[in-house]
Design brief:
There is one protein chain. The protein is of the alpha/beta class. It has ten helices and 13 strands. It has helices at 14-24, 42-47, 63-73, 94-115, 150-169, 191-203, 224-234, 253-263, 293-299, 307-328; strands at residues 4-8, 28-33, 54-57, 77-80, 120-126, 173-178, 181-182, 210-212, 218-219, 222-223, 243-245, 251-252, 273-275. It has a seven-stranded parallel sheet with strand order 3-2-1-4-5-6-11, sandwiched between helices. Strands 7-10 form a two-stranded parallel sheet. Strands 8-13 form a two-stranded parallel sheet. The longest helix is centred in the first third of the chain and has 22 residues, at 94-115. Bound molecules: NADP nicotinamide-adenine-dinucleotide phosphate and ligand F7E. The site of ligand F7E has 22 residues, from α6. Ligand F7E binds next to α6.
């Protein structure tokens, strides 16, 4: 019989890529969606799976809604991708961030414990938990956590609650500690997509500047389509465990900017980029670079898309979007 998977955060960036992967593997896929006045299925449409996903209504901050969904769906696997995921907003909305990203995970784990205790559970943990910490320039599964934002703090709580349900109740729960991953359907607030969208508009003469914050921080950027495979693999193992997922390379925001302008055929990027303090953060995570040996050795997982390939894919997709809009006018 086909396995059933429940994906929370189905309308975000990772949800659609994961739904596509699981549908291709023959799963019946349910996506948790909260109540919207104007829902957008654009990301699911982009990967071409909207009509194949079943939707269940619920909200991570509403425990009874999660109990109902788990009772009705009885999933074999649950991928918890829902979150207030924008670090920059987490200082202004620290309580909401905590309720969704921390307490919400406790609610979901409790619902599973009572109504689907054999379901396998994936928690979307993050390199933001490492924050200031690294071991010789890399962050791996044993690197200490030192989160730098309410977002990072909320995710540390969820990480340990996921481990605690495994240790207390013998449930199959796994943390994927994913480093930054991007795609043409990345949210527009995140720096990569903000850059590629801005470059596309500059290329087509729709605007003449791109305002950014700190260009010196460095990130280990990979492609979301590669990273959802690691999520799936974690839940196919004999025993549950926690894994870092990254490329092992790091680049500064400045290097991303340079690569994006180059990909659009524009050499003099400095002419267009303005530093705007509004986009700087109260506390920065200066450097992220994942040590990915465990995922490679135990899961057999490897990233396929390079940094240059990722930047190029995103720039081309944004140029195409604007060209279509212009043609429709
Ligand atoms: P995303 O695009 O921001 O998607 C998050 C989804 O969660 C959205 O669909 C959002 O719904 C939903 N959501 C927010 N609050 C909710 C609530 N109260 N109840 C139910 N759903 C809610 O994030 P992503 O990039 O796909 O990332 C997926 C997960 O991985 C997140 O947990 C993120 O924190 C984590 N993560 C991401 C990265 C990365 O680089 N992308 C790296 C490490 C970890 P709306 O559409 O209504 O906003
Ligand atoms: O910032 C700098 C900013 O917002 C990256 C989330 O998916 O990955 C993401 O978190 C860097 C930071 O992502 C702008 O200060 C400069 O140093 O794209 P970001 P993030 O904060 O790394 C982790 C792994 C997650 O888990 C999160 O959910 O870029 N930066 N100028 C800027 N950032 C933004 N957003 N906008 C700027 O104008």
């Amino acid at each position: 019989m086909a396995k059933t998977a429940l994906i929370t955060g189905i309308l975000g960036q990772d949800g659609p890529y994961l739904a596509k992967l699981l549908l291709e593997k023959g799963y019946k896929v349910y996506g948790l969606i909260r109540r919207y006045s104007n829902p957008s299925f654009d990301n699911l449409d982009y990967v071409g799976v909207t009509k194949d996903v079943n939707f269940a209504e619920g909200d991570l901050t509403d425990e009874s809604s999660l109990i109902n969904v788990i009772k009705n769906v009885r999933p074999d696997e649950v991928y918890n991708l829902a979150a207030q995921s924008f670090v920059g907003s987490s200082w202004e909305q620290a309580k909401l961030t905590t309720e969704v990203n921390a307490t919400g995970v406790l609610y979901l784990l409790n619902a599973l414990k009572y109504f689907s205790p054999t379901a396998k559970f994936y928690q979307a943990s993050t390199s933001e938990m490492f924050g200031l910490s690294n071991d010789d320039g890399y962050q791996g599964e044993t690197t200490q956590f030192h989160p730098r934002s309410p977002y990072g703090v909320s995710k540390v709580y969820a990480y340990w609650m996921t481990v605690n349900f495994r240790e207390s109740y013998n449930m199959f729960t796994a943390n994927g500690i994913l480093f930054n991953h991007e795609s043409p359907i990345r949210g527009i607030q995140f720096v990569t997509r903000k850059i590629t969208d801005g470059v596309a508009q500059i290329k087509l003469g729709l605007k003449d500047e791109l305002r950014l914050g700190n260009l010196d921080s460095s990130r280990d950027w990979g492609f979301a389509g590669d990273y959802v495979e690691a999520m799936y693999l974690m839940l196919q193992q004999e025993t549950p465990d926690d894994y870092v997922v990254a490329t092992g390379e790091t680049h500064t925001v400045r290097q991303f900017v340079e690569a994006a302008f180059k990909s659009a055929g524009i050499d003099d990027w400095e002419k267009y980029v303005k530093i705007d303090p509004r986009f700087q953060r109260p506390a920065e995570v200066p450097h992220l670079r994942g040590k990915v040996d465990k995922a490679k050795n135990k899961l057999g997982w490897e990233p396929k898309v390079s940094f240059e390939g990722l930047v190029d894919m995103m720039v081309k997709a944004d140029i195409e979007r604007y060209e279509k809009k212009i043609a429709q006018k």
